């Protein structure tokens, strides 16, 4: 298991003009801080510690960070960890990249992803139209996501 080199990450972010002292400071980045995205993605690609990966994925959960959506979807698809996948889904829901709606629908239709689909179901409810509503209706019978489907239908 390869953990996150937190000191190196903090140093790299501070070299970009920031003054952070820990990972909690990274959780406060906003839409204007896109310059840190390449640093976060670099570390996400080299670490294997699931908890560290979840932390970085949560840092990327910023509305408008559309440039990370493809990466997050790929991470979601290749992961076996429902906890990590749920964190990715949560970040995708915050980002709300409309251009990937068809990929979100593919994910929520796949029961193998289990409960990790919950926030992506919510996302589809916020972004989708009539076509996606029929998929959400089908999910009412899926115990892993049915409550999120109810919420999404009402969105």
What does this structure look like?
The protein is mainly α. The protein contains 10 helices and no strands. Helix 4 runs parallel beside helix 6 (82-95), helix 6 (82-95) runs parallel beside helix 8 and helix 8 runs parallel beside helix 10. It is elongated and about 50 Å long. The model has no long low-confidence stretch (mean pLDDT 97).
Characterize this entry briefly:
By secondary structure, this protein is an all-alpha fold. The protein has 10 helices and no strands. The longest helix is centred in the middle third of the chain and has 14 residues, at 82-95.
The radius of gyration computed from the alpha-carbon positions, rounded to a whole number of angstroms, is: 16 Å
**Percentage of helical residues?**
55-70%
Number of alpha- plus pi-helical segments: 10
Order of helices and strands: HHHHHHHHHH
Uncertain residue ranges:
none
Shape: elongated
Content of β-strand = under 5%
Q: Main beta sheet: strand number and arrangement?
A: none
How many strand units? 0
Measured distance between first and last alpha carbons:
40 Å
Structural class: mainly alpha
- pLDDT averaged residue by residue: 97
Summarize the SSE layout with pairings:
Blueprint lengths: L5 H10 L7 H4 L10 H10 L3 H10 L9 H10 L3 H14 L5 H9 L8 H10 L2 H9 L7 H9 L1
